[in-house]
Design the sequence.
């Protein structure tokens, strides 16, 4: 029911911030993941994952789930925000997840700066061979020059 869904959301926030209960961010992550497949709960889950992305211990897992939500189209968010998520994933050696975001932003972004930066970062995968992409400098230059 809707009341239970809202209660779960606020319970997760209490566990994240240690308000009224002992702080347990892993429990909050598990609460959000329980709602993983229920389309009506993606927004609440996204907000919980956003809060948890500030916790160094579970940041990587929270960001990975956020990438999944974005690429599946479960959530609409500011392109600059999702770009920052991709950079965080990249810095955590989550190259595949970062690439998936860069690829989508390079193809679809309405923000010219984000589109350009995403295209350059996508091209960098062809230069470095990250994400098991075959090194192909011609493909990298082709992406940047289009």
Sequence:
């Amino acid at each position: 029911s809707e009341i239970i869904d809202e209660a779960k959301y606020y319970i997760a926030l209490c566990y994240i911030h240690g308000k009224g209960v002992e702080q347990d961010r892993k429990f909050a992550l598990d609460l959000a993941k329980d709602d993983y497949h229920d389309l009506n709960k993606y927004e609440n889950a996204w907000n919980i994952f956003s809060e948890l992305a500030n916790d160094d211990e579970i940041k990587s897992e929270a960001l990975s789930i956020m990438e999944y939500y974005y690429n599946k189209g479960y959530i609409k968010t500011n392109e600059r925000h999702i770009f920052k998520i991709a950079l965080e994933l990249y810095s955590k050696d989550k190259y595949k997840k970062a690439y998936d975001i860069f690829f989508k932003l390079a193809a679809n972004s309405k923000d010219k700066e984000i589109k350009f930066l995403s295209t350059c970062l996508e091209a960098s995968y062809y230069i470095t061979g990250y994400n098991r992409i075959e090194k192909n400098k011609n493909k990298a230059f082709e992406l940047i020059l289009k």
Observations:
- The helical segments are 2-17, 25-34, 42-52, 59-72, 79-91, 95-108, 112-128, 137-145.
- Residues 1-77 form one domain.
- The chain has a mean pLDDT of 86.
- Residues 112-128 form the longest helix (17 residues).
